């Protein structure tokens, strides 16, 4: 205030003796004296300001007045707590990292922590904690604590384990009590230093690997890796194979653990290998861990199938039914799996044999006949299932064992041949040799000869082994004539088989009458074997009469036939329309036996009287006997004398039957199967070889050997049709007595 008035009472205010801080932070209004803050005031820098304010009036010789002004700066919580971390004791801190050994005990101090706050009062009261789940805590360093500065020990709460946790990040949080509260954090990295307290370990402890055989030496097999939870030199390891015997085949790199094979492995020699690998660290003291290594040698198709034998030989009996087992082979393959799966093939596959691969059994597709083929040879091919496949071969021989399935057969003499002897032939004279063969083998082909008939006087004897027939005793008068020896040729099979041969011996002073001898031999061929023909004079005489009567009767019949044909031709030629002409064929054989109509109408044709049948031959021999002889006895309807000639004539001899057929204008008269005379003919059949077949020829017509071949009567095919018969078919009577048209036949 200034008591003056006017200009003298106007006052100006200024700061006086103000410090630089005051001048920087404050200003005063010159007119009003109001002090303003012109800068940021920080209590932590300046807690109070002292200066003078001068008041000066504006009058002449102005007067002044001054006053001391003190400004106290009040605290606001504008400062966060400060955290300082320092090393302590043996724990060395470097670059905010503390190193501590893992073997330190619980409660070991790691660092000294100091917390401060620049504020004052409540704003400077700080709370400090360790954040997170770490094995560390803060412990006050002293009992008396300054509110503005506090010290703590950072210490462990549990044992540290380098292998579990190698380092920790410790975060310390400090919070003041201001409103609002301010906080700050600081961190420390704690590294746990390693001690060699861990053994090297393999994971897994059992290592199994597949390795193919046939490798090259030095090939890598596998790598074994061990780990050590320690660090540094404590974690550095050296690898080695424990078993000395395994080191001959395998080696391991001491630093890397790589296992290599020294030699070539062969699965067929050894399929599995097992050994142990050790890993030792370099710590003090050193610790060692082990692992088990198993090497499975994989198979390669490096082996061919192998047969148990170098060759197989089997024996089978002949006539064995197809698809029966012949033999079994054994084949192996040293490989494994598909490489050892063997399939067998028949090579060459001609369809005669097949192989069962499941049983390795050889089967036959044929029935064996030793006489056709006694030995079969082929190969078996064995192919494995590898890729590429391997194969091998083995020879197989099949020997067909003989079975007595063939009877002997006589090659000499012919059944129709004969040997001439004079009555004065001395004993021991060689008469004939029966030669026979048997296509079987072994005992089945060993022949035994015996005389079973025709030797009632014991005149002849035969060698059982050679078949030589010799005269046993001298002839007498009653022995003159034909002798028929029935010789049985038997083999020594089980059961034995046999055949029968006829040996004819003609005993007489001379043999000038060859026709008589041949007739006797021919008759012998259809005489039952149980009847001895042994030179009986009466038997020979009766046979001569029969032959003579048969020859005369045959000649008479031929003449009658020729006369009848001439007469009929003469009458038939009168018919100009369709009468018979020479060379024309008729629909029916004019001389074939007629059969009356079924209804009984018309005149009955006169049936010729059938001859009294002779007693049929009893077959006391077996099937071989039937195959050994074959002849036919044909009785004429009028019982004319029989003439017996060989059916198979020598080359160049005339065939009388063919001669008659070719020169006669009429068809050959032939017995039809339905003919009454034919049906009642006596037939005595004994099987003979084809060259020894004789047929009786006493019928009215002359026939060749082909007429009765195969021992059956064959009807000739129709020779004439209705058109060739002509108008005779339209006539009911023929202009001649006792001739009628019946069933298209006059």
Automatic annotation (TrEMBL):
User: Does the keyword Nucleus feature in the UniProt annotation?
Assistant: no
Which residue ranges are recorded for the region named Disordered?
575-624, 640-685
* Chain segments annotated as transmembrane: 547-568
Q: Where in the cell is it found?
A: Cell membrane
Biased composition, class Basic and acidic residues, residue ranges: 575-591
Superkingdom per UniProt = Eukaryota
Low complexity bias: where? Answer: 664-677
Cadherin domain boundaries: 2-83, 92-202, 203-307, 308-410, 425-530
Task: Give start-end positions of Basic residues composition bias.
Answer: 600-612
Which source organism does the UniProt entry give? Answer: Xenoophorus captivus
Annotated membrane topology: Single-pass type I membrane protein
Is S-adenosyl-L-methionine set as a keyword in this record?
no
Which Pfam families does the entry link to?
A: Cadherin, Protocadherin
Report the protein name in the record: Protocadherin-1
| This protein's UniProt keywords | Calcium, Cell membrane, Glycoprotein, Membrane, Repeat, Signal, Transmembrane, Transmembrane helix
